[in-house]
Amino acid sequence: MILILDVLLHLAIWLLLAPLLPGIINKVKAWVAGRRGPPVLQLYYDLAKLWRKGVVLSTLASPGFVIGPAVGWIAVLGAAMLLPLGPAGAVLSFRGDVLLMVYLLALARFCTAWAAMETGSAFEGMGAAREVSYAVLTEAAIIAAVLSLSVQSGSTSLVAMLAPAAGAGAMLLAAGLFTVLLAENCRVPFDDPNTHLELTMIHEVMVLDHSGPPLAVILHGAAIKLLFFAVLLTEAVLPLGKLSPAAAAGVLLAGVMVVTVGVGLVESLLARLAFRRVPLLLTTAFLLCLFALLMAWKGGAE
Amino acid sequence: MNESLNFLIGLAMGLNLLALGSSRLPAVIRAMSLQGMALGLMPLLMEDHFDWRVSLVAVATVAGKGFVIPMLLRRAMRAAQIDREMEPFIGFVPSLLLGAGGTIAAVALARQLPLLPEHAGSLLVPGALASVLTGFVLLIGRAKAISQVCGYLILENGIYLFGLLLIKSTPLLVEAGILLDLTVGVFVIGIIVDRIQRAFDSLDTRKLTTLRE
């Protein structure tokens, strides 16, 4: 009974709170630009609207066009279930679950790219190619970050890895993971979520042909992914395990808010990078995470 | 104590990467000055009890490397009207990879060095080697005189990190002298940069190899 309640609580937090983050980011952007901006709950309205609409299906598309977003959404949610929520812990935790997390994120990306290419449109194929080529570098950065946490804590379970602080490399890890967050969630300076020029879009162009409930699922999955990376970043850098449960929950919430507002500020103050500059920034992020690994490896040998 | 020291050295290593990867001069100057400030705080962390001479060195280092030298460099940039783009001989990604390879080699090498037991756990030596290597890459790989100055200053930061190992036995006078030399050096370079700009209409050091009557 307790177990079921625990699972339901986690599901509720992830499913209901996730669409808040894009709303907060948009509010911050509007505030910096001096506009009033859309309401914070805008994504909830959008999702409700999309859910009621019908689906336009291309005659070319196989069932993968609908299955892709569904599997991608489940994969991201599955990865979220493995991530501990501060004092509430994770729904599922076992030795080596961090590997499953990395693979679930990769599966979600594969499904989005697969569904994007189903309609046979060249723009979608281009977006998928860009998304996957950025992912090569971000995935390396995530693996380096996860390895540094694992070396630091001597464990391969997410719950045990994220409880202590990241140690000497905390600053490097924070910078690296924040860059990864921006790239993985297709935010400025890697991609512009507001752009409507097919030639320069990455994530948005991949979902161009989706409509109705599948599009709602994709948007909701993207919001969960954003929350996922914000929580991962906060827990990797701050020593939540040493605080009392109430304080840990408060710090986690504050950390996620800081990350979200930070994304909004980056988006308002930075221009998007030229395509040829992107690998440079992603390589820097990877090397920052790698240095964090070096610090954990060498600094821990006292 | 070691933990917070390692944290600052980690910050310095990250700033090395930023200096190697950024394509704008002001960003490199900012990375260098932040690194100088992080380094300036270290002597305070290394001392167990308050020592006014060590604090004086720390304050002078933070002020000199964090504010005075960057200000001189920015003024030289303004006076000579240098545009802020760097012109790399070695591309940004290769120089990043060179710097990262150097850092990894430094960490691996420092394990082999016969260090005092109290320094074995700290990252001082690998951090120093990494900064020196980053400085070399910047010195070799950038065409503009100002970016070479930044490379030289990052190299000096590395040497300063090495010097921290001996902080208890180096006299205050030596530390102050080094800092003064550095500031005067940058001051003079600021004037020279202006002269180069006037004589050659460019700060590209490649053009300095041809002689003029």
Based on CA atoms alone, the radius of gyration of chain B comes out at 18 Å
Helix content of chain A: 55-70%
Q: What is the percent of helical residues of chain B? A: over 70%
Cα-to-Cα separation, first versus last residue of chain B = 59 Å
What is the count of helical runs of chain A?
A: 12
Which descriptors apply to this entry?
heterodimer, A: 302 residues, mainly alpha, globular, B: 213 residues, 7 helices
Q: What does the secondary structure layout of this molecule look like, with pairings?
A:
The complex is a heterodimer of chains A (302) and B (213).
Chain A: H1 2-17, H2 20-33, H3 42-52, H4 64-82, H5 97-117, H6 122-153, H7 158-162, H8 170-184, H9 203-206, H10 212-237, H11 245-269, H12 278-299
Helix pairs in contact in A: 2-11, 3-10, 4-5, 4-10, 5-6, 6-8, 6-12, 8-10, 8-12, 10-11
Chain B: H1 2-21, H2 25-46, H3 52-80, H4 92-110, H5 124-141, H6 145-164, H7 172-200
Helix pairs in contact in B: 1-2, 1-4, 1-5, 2-3, 2-6, 3-7, 4-5, 5-6, 6-7
Structure notes:
Chain A contains 12 helices and no strands. Chain A starts with a helix and ends with a helix. Helices cover 70% and strands 0% of the residues of chain A. The longest helix of chain A is centred in the middle third of the chain and has 32 residues, at 122-153. Chain A has helices at residues 2-17, 20-33, 42-52, 64-82, 97-117, 122-153, 158-162, 170-184, 203-206, 212-237, 245-269, 278-299. Chain A is mostly helical. Chain A has one domain. Chain B has 213 residues and is an all-alpha fold. Chain B has one domain. Classes of the chains: A mainly alpha (302), B mainly alpha (213). The interface between A and B is medium-sized, with 25 and 27 residues.
Quick summary:
The complex is a heterodimer of chains A (302) and B (213). Chain A is an all-alpha fold.
